[in-house]
Amino acid sequence: MNDLPELLKTCLIVCPLIFCASFVDSVAGGGGLISIPAYLLAGVPTYTALGTNKLVNGLGTGMAAIGYIRSRKVVWRIAAWSAMAALGGSAIGTKLALLIPENILQLVLLAVLPVVAVFLVAKKDFGRSELHKKFSQKQEIMCSVLIGLFIGCYDGMFGPGTGTFLIMLYTAVLGMDLLMASGCAKISNLASNLASAAVYLLHGKVWFALAIPAAVCSIAGGWIGSRFAIRGGSKRVRSMIFVVLCILFVKILYELLI
Fold first, then answer.
1. Helix/strand/coil percent split, the chain, to 5
2. What is the tally of structural domains in the chain?
């Protein structure tokens, strides 16, 4: 993986797709649906692709998180607790992945995704404004921890669409608008990505020569995507969620059929 022509060819395939993945991820989550296939398409070995992606995605998510933080679109009392729980959930999910066949989880998602899409169509006002649900501080913390634990576990087991599901749950359970929920999701995603990236780094599964240019593209995509979402409000986040759900549905269906 040190041959210069091979590296340049790989960068030409990977970098534009990483920019797109980071853009999508910063708005509505689900960037991994684009970034992982990009590395594999370029011929990067699977574990090196996963390790490089985690590091690169973490940097892109970090830039998106900064954009949301600067625009005050993060509720820290929710994001911080959720992020800490997501770390533990990811570890649990990784162990469960060894026990539960992936195709079972894929079948469950295949049934759930259309329901989520139909719900968004039916509830046109979903996430357009904060509902200010009446929770005590302890109840809000508990909900934040459970969301982080549950989705972190999913991320460790399976992964695709993690940010999207975080946004949906923050909105449905805690009554946040989609834009604030997206900001909080970035904090939880950042914690999960960095923890995972550290593991891959320790095992030497990061291709740094590719990671550096890909990280530049990821940071640019994350920054531009966060500005796109913040300026467009919940409407743009909602539209991008539909795109992510459709891509995830097609991906899972394809994998089950081949």
1. 80, 0, 20
2. 1
Count CA atoms closer than 13 A to 15's CA, side-chain side. Answer: 16
By the 10 Å C-beta count (0-12 exposed, 13-18 middle, 19+ buried), 203 is classed as exposed
pLDDT in tens, 215-252: 999 999 999 998 898 888 777 787 888 788 888 888 87
Start-to-end Cα distance in the chain: 30
Residues 6+ apart with CB under 8 A from 214: 11, 14, 15, 18, 52, 56
Query: In a 3-state reduction of DSSP, which class is residue 231?
Result: helix
Find the domain containing 170 and state its range.
4-257
The burial of 2, by beta-carbon neighbours within 10 Å (0-12 exposed, 13-18 middle, 19 or more buried), is given as exposed
Query: CB of 157 within 8 A of CB of 105?
Result: yes
The tokens describing 94, both together, are 């990784």
Which amino acid makes up residue 244? V
Is 165 within 8 Å of 146 (Cβ atoms)?
no
Which residue from 219, 229, 196 is spatially nearest to 47, judged by alpha carbons? 196
User: Can you give the pTM of this predicted structure?
Assistant: 0.81
- Tens-place pLDDT, residues 151-207: 888 877 777 788 888 998 999 898 888 889 999 999 998 888 787 788 788 888 889
Element of type H or E holding 193: helix 178-202
Tell me if residue 89 falls in helix, strand or coil. Answer: helix
The Cα–Cα gap between 143 and 151 comes to 12
In angstroms and rounded to an integer, the radius of gyration of the C-alpha atoms of the chain is 17
Asked if residue 62 lies in contact with residue 190, where contact means CB atoms within 8 angstroms, the answer is: yes
